[in-house]
Design brief:
Blueprint (H helix, E strand, L loop, with lengths): L1 H14 L12 H26 L6 H33 L10 H23 L3 H18 L2 H4 L1
Helix pairs in contact: 2-3, 2-5, 3-4, 4-5
Length: 153
């Protein structure tokens, strides 16, 4: 019985690896995959918002769906912002002084994270697909800087 409880607790620690407890359990690739899914959801929400709002005679059901898509778009953009701030910036990218080795990479990483946070914010404010493309590009840029060749695979 104790083995089952320990197994469950051990499994939960993997599921909660994004916490700020210094447990040392991280899954950077999973965070990227989740953010890619968030971007896909934002993109689909924008398409649905355009589709529903372009209708000449919007029913109350259509209005309801429009509001739901708007809320979903904002929620997924917020998830990206939270992941960037609470996971990458707070836990994974260690601050460096300008005299330390790795400082240039640190500046690139933090700048790229800030760009992604900004781009996600713009997807909340608009239904312009341009910001989805910039967000995709921003995330790809982070992957190129953050991961080594093995991590990119």
């Amino acid at each position: 019985m104790n083995h089952i409880i320990i197994g469950i607790l051990f499994s939960l620690s993997f599921l909660l690896a994004h916490c700020q407890v210094p447990c040392g359990i991280y899954d950077d690739a999973a965070r990227i995959i989740h953010m890619e899914e968030d971007i896909q959801t934002i993109e689909k929400a924008m398409l649905k918002i355009h589709e529903l709002s372009d209708s000449d005679d919007m029913s109350s059901q259509d209005q309801n769906q429009l509001v739901r898509w708007i809320n979903t778009k904002g929620q997924h953009a917020q998830k990206i912002q939270d992941t960037m701030a609470e996971y990458f910036l707070a836990q994974r990218i260690n601050p460096k002084n300008d005299s330390e080795k790795g400082y240039d990479k640190y500046v690139l990483l933090t700048t790229q994270c800030q760009k992604i946070i900004f781009q996600a914010m713009k997807t909340k404010q608009t239904v312009d697909q341009e910001w989805v493309e910039k967000l995709k590009s921003g995330l790809n840029g982070l992957v190129k800087i953050y991961f080594d060749n093995h991590g990119k695979e």
